[in-house]
């Protein structure tokens, strides 16, 4: 019976330090000065302990492609085009190596759960899904992986994609993806939505869509959130739908947006900004007062919307940056969304822990409480409200009650 005890953990900023005793991968006891013995004991010395971070939206299969074909114009169109050309040259080993690197980087940064969106289309076919299914098994003791069948090239535009998505589900994928803006007409975008809702319903799976990724409201293919709220309620999918990007919402006027935010909350939809990509691709053509190009996070939180955020891309044509480090993305979000108070900085941490866990449907076993899974990360910070600005390393990453990453930094300043 394997046991682990961590002492003097900062779990909340308004509470004394706590000890956490874990046995067989589960948190059994939390309290001050626990007397229980353990196979291993770690003294956190007041450092912050969070539940393992949740990377709710990432594309390991197309990570590290930036150097092969940089995005010169910096537009979404060129990103899709360049990546489409590179996909034609993929080999299984190449996709495996790049995806594995993303997983390793993420784990070292404190991520214990990940939802990956491999492309499924007429070019990559099911290679990304196959690679991630293998990695899911190989890395099962280190990270929980959910796999989305993601039609990056559209469904009506890319022959055989719907059938391949269903095949991916039968192989073991966990979530139905979508990308309705990448169709030729509004009618096709709407048909795309209906097809993915039908597929999710048929296989009783959640839906996770890339939608409304624009910095203006002129193209109706990028203004589908309202319709998706209606579909979610009509199909009884409340609490099981996630929308990534949704940057168009930042271009709506406040009154119009306010009604929509209330509707999103009512439909139980999670909004997943992808700041590194959103900020990099949007606002490109502004010559002054450049738009930030992100969904309005604070306003949605105020309306009770479940908001998480994620890395999305690591060093490719969509985003030439990325370390699979959610704290870095959190800093970008906090800065650009004016979330600077201690309370707001803690809310940013909630978005990559509890809110993202809710999005992934794992909230029942997730968190720091007796009976929850022993997936924890010890950060080299002394207050939760400092984590985003400290950008600390993860001293310990604990998965199922076992230390899987251990790292420290020695610093001398004369
Ligand atoms: Zn994405």
Automatic annotation (TrEMBL):
Superkingdom per UniProt: Bacteria
Domain Amidohydrolase-related: 48-403
SUPFAM superfamilies reported in the protein's UniProt record: Composite domain of metallo-dependent hydrolases, Metallo-dependent hydrolases
InterPro entries assigned: Amidohydro-rel, Metal-dep_hydrolase_composite, Metal_Hydrolase, Metallo-hydrolase_Enzymes
Coiled-coil intervals: none
Pfam families hit by this protein: Amidohydro_1
CDD domains, sorted: Bact_CD
Protein name per its UniProtKB record: Amidohydrolase family protein
The species this protein was found in: Sporosarcina gallistercoris
Lineage: Bacteria, Bacillati, Bacillota, Bacilli, Bacillales
